[in-house]
Amino acid sequence: MSQRTLPPGRAEPGRLAKITSEEWLRRSLLLLLLGVLLVGILLPLVPLGMRSLSDPQGNFVGLDNYVRYFSSPGLTSSLFNSLTIAGKTTLLAVGLAFVYAWALARTCMPGKHFFRAVALLPLVVPPLALAIGLVYLFGRKGLVTTGFFGFFEQNFGIALGFDLNLYGQNGILLGELIYCFPQAFLILAVAASLADARLYEASQVLNASPLRTFWSVTLPEMRYGLISAVFVCFTLAFTDFGIPKVVGGNYNVLATDIYKQVIGQQNFVMGATVSIVLLIPTVLAFVADRIAQRHQNAVLTARATPLHPRPTPLLDRFALVYCSLVAAAILAVTGTVIYASLVDVWPYRLELTLRHYDFSKVGGGGWEAYTNSLWMAFYTAGVGTAIIFAGAYLIEKNRTWGPLRQTAYFLSMISVALPGLVIGLAYIFFFNPTHWTLLGVEMPNPFAGLYGTMAILVLSNIVHFYTVSFMAATTALKQIDGELEAVSASLGVPFYRTFWRITLPLSLPAVAEIALYLFVNAMVTVSAVILLYSPQIKLASVAIVNLDDAGDTAAAAAMSVLVIAACLTVRILYFWITRPLHRRTQAWRLP
Amino acid sequence: MKQWTTAIFALLLLAGCSAVQPSGETGTAAPSGEITVYTALEDDQISSYLALFNEQHPEITVNIVRDSTGIITARLLAEKENPQADVVWGLAATSLLVAEQQEMLEAYAPAGLERVRAEFRDSDTPPHWVGIDTWFSAFCVNTVEVEKSGLTMPTSWADLVKPEYKGLIAMPNPASSGTGFLSVSAILQMMGEEAGWAYLDQLHENIAVYTHSGSKPCRMAGAGEVAIGISFDYRAVKQKEAGEPIEPVFPAEGSGWEIEANALVRKSEIVPAAKVFLDWAIGDDIMQLYAGSYPITSVATEIPIPDGYPADPLAQLVENDFVRMAGEREQILAQWTERYDGKSEPR
Known about the structure:
Shape of chain A: globular
CATH superfamily of the largest domain in chain B: Periplasmic binding protein-like II
CATH class of chain A: Mainly Alpha
Helix content of chain A: 55-70%
Radius of gyration of chain B: 22 Å
Largest sheet of chain A: 2 strands, antiparallel
Strand order of the largest sheet of chain A: 1-2
CATH class of the largest domain in chain B: Alpha Beta
Structural class of chain A: mainly alpha
Structural class of chain B: alpha/beta
Low-confidence stretches of chain A: 1-17
Oligomer: heterodimer
CATH architecture of the largest domain in chain B: 3-Layer(aba) Sandwich
CATH topology of chain A: MetI-like fold
Number of strands of chain A: 4
Mean pLDDT of chain A: 81
């Protein structure tokens, strides 16, 4: 930003040549990124869009499908329902996550590591397991609904049962809330952890009340993260289909409409049409986000000193109580899944047993599927983090080729709007044919070899979870003052060295979060890969769906517990391995 | 330096990953006797069936893709331009009819075809699909809940509209579940259009929730979430066996039903192994195994009807005109959706 103020005369002839070759490298990297994004996100949408303009036989019919869809009576209610769910979820999830993230970053409450881990726990719970947990808690025979199977009624004579009316809007809302909370928290935690202590000192010196400080310092500096979190939660809740499918009852949303068209009736034309309709609000949200972000400046300037919260007993106590309540809710749902995997026959025979952990009698692919999932998650985390963080860097810390960077930014943001099922379907249409026919011209498909391989699974995962990781990276990068780069550049240090020596180490917490985020999501995701996995590469998350489908709910819960265990193990391992590194690169944050 | 790391990672994505999975089309170019089979059969069934195949045809490697009927059908149709499957095994006949309409199936008469009951295979010669067994609608009734709430055991479709069951029944949504559609189509064929829709109107009053999967209502009944789940026979029997308080009830008026069938996928290279598999899949040995899990198989066997099923399962099936139902499906679903779907959830 401040680089723009550099006097133009500073570049001497010799320096100019160097900058040019560096510039060339920058540009080719940007082009490479754009290529990946085009193939991964935009181009696969073309055959999908074409289908929405054709009849089932493939003849062009213009907007007929849209007219048909918009004139069908169910739509208005589905669209309205989707918007209601997305709106309410966003409000609740961002609100809760904001206070939670703030409490962790800005108070001296105890147990921060614990609370942070719990907040991110739902990320490692497969969505289906989340739904199983909700049903076992709030369903008609749920622990809460029946007052712990009448325990209180029998022993104390008071009926504590509470019927939430799970199936329908309440269930979806609760599910989406648990699903979106960690996503919002992830973005807001990064935003809250980077603060300039000087502003708070100034505020204190000026005798501003804590409320005033919060209002005029904390909120503005977290604004970027807040807007991002709102955008992500809205689109996630708007496009998710897993939770409405399981606990939605008769409350229809657009994403389940797609499911009904594609999986229920194999009506790809209508499925494609609804998919495109689904994109509209997300694109609008994107535009709104873009306008809001226009004036964003770096929060963390080169002169910033890191903020270290001071003990404030009252506030710390409040933070502890609040975080405990939220954490308890998350632990209850997860705990119920673990409990469900151990109970003989829920809810009639409550003896504990390990028999559901014996997968030899059930299908799904067993250990092989589990190993495949682990590999897929490792690839997704490694390749994905490299592409996403480097991509965010090229877009954020670069001043050339504005329109290209805007396009890359748009593509990076739009992927969140694509429901997994849509990605899966679009990928089949794009990657499977050996030849594409474009305007009557046939050409060989250069990517046909990817179909049915691990690579396409990895690519679909990276694309599916691109946006949230990208936003975390961008948030972290925005908080590093551009001046650091300007100084490096003026000292003749090439940008990649600055990146490697300064930007990357400074952003290490964000990079670590992104890698973990990608890993766990690849472990638990179902919607995109269920259409793409090949017989040679079965996956654990798909096995959970199949187990549940086959009525082996307890075995599905058991497999979920194993997936959760794998994710947690990786998390702990990662923490141990990176702690020394973390300590070295993040020392500047310490007093 | 960074760009090299990026490049290496990119190479890993392209080279490393494809090394794990060297060829995506092992099924297509497989003179070695490797085939890809798409199936919607239950997982626990597949493992015992395949063990038999591997024993009898060790030279052929079978790669199984197993998923629910809807997902398998969607995959099959979406891959139309470049089919990955060689064989479809045990998929709903109505799904195969759709694939046949799109000219995705190769007509093939497997060895021993003459033994297969005529109504269990495509009427064309050679047939595009050949059935192996049937499944039909059944109610999963939770005996504990029925007793606790002082309800009577339902025995027929007519019972289900009694006011005492208000809000206690789960049923699959026919727009997303094949099991849901076969029940709705049975009601419409049994009672006729007008009376059928009038019945569904009444039934709607008692429905707590329409589910997206055909087995879900039975699972909900098994967990006591509802008292009655409209589902299908195998699921009801299996859950009872698993120790859940479920009593399978086969409606007195008869059950809607559907055939699970096999087909050969039309593609540029049809491998001989695929035909070997199809021959085997209606052979006498495997029929014995099918009969162990389903009461009605397409080739009669000596195996006694498994426990929990009606004594005369064929009599349980209603008259069912598959081709007509496939033709009217879209219109029936549109009407069903307009009447019952998209309403706010009933209290």
